[in-house]
Write a structure and sequence with these properties.
Distance between the termini: 84 Å
CATH architecture of one domain: Orthogonal Bundle
CATH superfamily of one domain: DnaJ domain
Strand content: under 5%
Low-confidence stretches: 1-6, 199-220
Strand order of the largest sheet: 1-2
Number of helices: 9
CATH class of one domain: Mainly Alpha
Shape: rod-shaped
Order of helices and strands: HHHHHHHEEHH
Radius of gyration: 34 Å
Largest sheet: 2 strands, antiparallel
Mean pLDDT: 76
Structural class: mainly alpha
């Protein structure tokens, strides 16, 4: 292993400041050096580069680089991550892998579309797997008869024929029908609110939909 003290302070300063992120070069050691060799190399450089012992104006900067290189290479996990990802990523490792960062970016970019797709599939599922009469949340076509659910006062519209049918039903069947309307409205509203929020706020417990058990929504 080369001896930095034999090369002299000026050569050590030049090498360190020319390659500040090449930690093995900074300490003048090989990549297969043991922890003991790393400690010895650091002590040798500290003796000639410490600002109290070296009058050079560049000594303090070089000493900081040496200290940084030593703190990374002497710690097993940080050294492993440095060997894999380079300087500046030794603390986070895989999380700083550019490929993973790009993957997260693409996922977040498509997240709103995935949520909208889920919303559409959710709506289609309930429209094809329940026996409830059709309805709308806003007037359209024949759906002009305005109604409000009894529980949460959700506004919805039905056709005149469905309105007539509802008048012929007992209170229990109407309550089941309106619970389904409220359940569907609740999830559609939460999806819309989350889409309007910045990405950084997604996952906040205050934005999560309140639990509602669809198993309680019995068909008639």
């Amino acid at each position: 292993m080369p001896d930095s003290m034999e090369k002299g302070p000026e050569e050590a300063l030049r090498r360190i400041l020319d390659f500040p992120t090449e930690y093995y070069t900074v300490l003048d050691i090989s990549k297969d050096s043991s922890t003991l060799q790393i400690k010895r190399a650091y002590k040798k450089l500290a003796l000639i580069l410490h600002p109290d012992k070296n009058p050079s104006s560049k000594a303090e900067e070089a000493f900081k680089v040496v200290s940084k290189a030593y703190s990374v290479l002497v710690e097993e996990n940080a050294r492993r991550n440095y060997d894999l990802y380079g300087a500046g990523r030794e603390a986070t490792g895989l999380q700083s892998d550019p490929r993973m960062s790009r993957s997260r970016f693409h996922f977040v970019s498509f997240l709103p579309f995935l949520i909208i797709l889920f919303c559409i599939l959710f709506q289609c599922f309930f429209e094809e797997t329940n026996d409830y009469p059709d309805f709308r949340y806003s007037p359209s076509g024949e759906f002009t008869a305005e109604r409000f659910t009894e529980g949460h006062h959700v506004r919805y519209f039905v056709t005149p024929s469905i309105e007539h049918w509802l008048h012929s039903q007992d209170i229990e069947n109407i309550q089941k029908y309106e619970k389904f309307i409220e359940f569907k409205h609740h999830h559609l509203s939460d999806i819309h609110q989350n889409l309007m929020k910045p990405y950084s706020t997604w996952g906040d417990s205050n934005l999560q939909p309140k639990p509602m058990n669809p198993n309680k929504l019995l068909t008639f």
